[in-house]
Every structure is written in C-alpha cells, then in structure tokens.
Amino acid sequence: MLNLLPPLNDKNLPWLDVIHPIVVHFVIAMALIAVVFDVVGVVTRKKNLFEVSFWNLVVATVAIIVAIMFGQVEAGLANPYGASRDILNLHSTIGWSLAGVLALLTGWRYVARQKDPALLPKGFLVVDFALAALVLVQVYLGDTLVWVYGLHTVPVVEAIREGVLS
Amino acid sequence: MSLFAAVTSPLDEIAESLGANNLPYAIPLHPNLVHLTIGLFAIAIAFDVVAAFYPLEKRLFRFLALPVTRSGFHDVGWYNLVACSGISFFTVGAGFYEMLLAVPLPGVRSILGQTAIATMLWHAIGGVVILFVIVAMTVWRGYQRFIWRKDLGRQVSWLYLLCGVAMLLAMGLHGSLGAWLASDFGVHITADQLLAAGADLNEVLP
C-alpha cells in the first residue's frame, strides 16, 4: 500500500512547495479586508462597500475549505517536534473552527443581503472584530510553525531524517 | 580572497540586538503583508473577470436565485485593487528592511540553480517592478471606472484583464523565489539558523 504513495522531496512534500500558505492568502486577505470595508462602509456611509465585503467573505469561506484540505495533508507530513506539536494541534483546531465561523457569518450576511443589500446587520461590526482577532491569532500560530520551528523547510526536514531532531 | 573575507558583515555590529533569526522580532512582517498583496490583487482581477463575462453567467445566477449586479462585481474589482495598492508599499518596504538583515544559509542552490544572493536580487527588483505595475494598473482602472468607460456595463477593457492575468502568473514565479528564500535558504527562520549554528533544537527550541 505504502509504495502507492508519491515520493516525498527534501521538504517532505509530494509537491514542490507548501500549498497551504498560498491558499491562506485568500482567507487572510479577504476576511481582514471584509472587516475593513464594513468599518469604512459604516463610517463613510458608502453602502456599496457592504457588497464588496460580502463577496470577500464568500471567497474567504470557499478558500478556507481548500486551505484545510491542504493544511491537513501538509500537517500530516510536517513531523512537528517539541512545542510545535501543541501549536500545530491548536492551529488545526482553530482552523476548523474558523471555517465554521466564516460559513456562519457569510450565511448571516447572505440572508441580510436578500432583505436589504445596503444595510449591515446590527451588531455585525462587533462580530467583525472578533473575526479579525481570530484570524490574526490563527496567522500568528501558523507563522510560528514556519518561522520559528521551520516545519517543511529543508534544514529541519534533513535534521529530522538524520534523527538529530524528534 | 582572504582580503575579501576580512571585511565583516555590517550585521555583526548589531548582532546583539537581533534574535537567532537575524531579526529584532520573532516573526517576519513581509511574508504576512504578502498575504494581503497577493490575495487582494488576485481576487480583484477575478471579480473583474466574472463581471466581464456577466452576460454569460446571468442565467446561472437567476437559476440560483442569487441577486447579483454587474456593478457589484466591479466594485469588488476596484476596491480590492485600491486596498492592494496602498498595502503593497508596506509589503515592499518591510521586504527591503528584512532583506537587509537576511543571512541565507551558504552553499545552497534553489530549484532553478540560483544562489541565495541571485534569488534575493531578483526578488527585490521584481518586487519593485510589481509594486509599480500594481499602482499603474490601479490608476488605469480608475480612469476606466470614472472616465473612459463610465457609461459602459463592462467597466474594464479586455487588455486590462489580460494584464491582470499575466501579472498573476508573474507574481506566482516571484512569490516562489520568496518562498525558497525561506524554505531552502533558511532566511529569518529561527530553527534553520540555529541548526546551521550547530545548536541542538531539542534543547534550545523546546
């Protein structure tokens, strides 16, 4: 069975580079800019910005599903060591939760938009800030896995394969 | 060569105020700002493409009972691009700051056969060019939105969309150079730098 799997490269990946950090561009950028456009829309009373933030939320929701798919595969091949094991677990838990949160918020906005696209539902700005905070925490955890622990980088993978790191 | 080696890096003078990752902070800023630059640009172009083909998609949206407007899609294309333009100055600025502090691992070649310094130089010049094109395309799109194509349903020309798609391909290659600076050359990655210094990660990075 195992010989049916594709061979892994020097980053312990079946493909050239990590894909998860690319897909999350579209979760991070779209979720954060949706929050910004909601705030600017409320402050400047530019109603068409709510339409822009709605579509950005839709993209973020679709993208996070894809991000989780690649994230799970690459997490499974990451060989976390030391404290990065706990960080990866937390990052996975928040990641799945964030998918639920984003889907819920996008659904809420969809229903509200059917009634009146020029109106931001009451209390949505508060939820917006919570969403931004959750995204930033998630980004920080992912950043720690890459920039502190170097998961899927050539030197770390080499050290793990040589058995000097576990 | 020995004379050349006698000239030390200017980084040595501030080495004490930098961490193991050669930065005064743990997480580099540039790769995070890049999320915003690429995400906003790509989705801006994507929504303008969707808006451009709106006559073909109309029936599908009606079938889904999803109320959409062509101008709404173009709004996403415009506002995301404006945001991208503004943020990308900080992306490039942070990139140059962090590149000045970069200490790539020696003796490594990228998958294209490039050295670390060649990769950094291409990534730096490419970054400035991309910033210039993003800003130029924002001005171009602004003229189309508010003046040249003000009364037209399709707010952007086909040439603009073609440029956008070409830019996305260029950004893909450009981004790969940046990714290799981290994953292959170990730039600003604490674990990679510590390993290169001969440290035992099981002890220093619990």
Average pLDDT number of chain B: 93
What percentage of residues of chain B falls in helices of 4 or more residues? 55-70%
Principal-axis shape of chain A: elongated
Structural class of chain A: mainly alpha
Biggest pleated sheet of chain A: none
Helix content range of chain A: over 70%
Briefly summarize what is shown:
The complex is a heterodimer of chains A (166) and B (206). Chain A has 166 residues and is mainly α.
Keywords:
heterodimer, A: 166 residues, mainly alpha, 71% helix, B: 206 residues, 8 helices, 67% helix, 0% strand
Task: Characterise this structure.
- The complex is a heterodimer of chains A (166) and B (206).
- By secondary structure, chain A is mainly alpha-helical.
- Helices cover 71% and strands 0% of the residues of chain A.
- Chain A has one domain (19-161).
- Chain A is built from six helices and no strands.
- By secondary structure, chain B is mainly alpha-helical.
- Chain B is 67% helix and 0% strand.
- Chain B contains eight helices and no strands.
- The model of chain B has no long low-confidence stretch (mean pLDDT 93).
- Classes of the chains: A mainly alpha (166), B mainly alpha (206).
- Chains A and B meet through helix 2, helix 3, helix 5 and helix 6 of A and helix 2, helix 4, helix 6 and helix 7 of B.
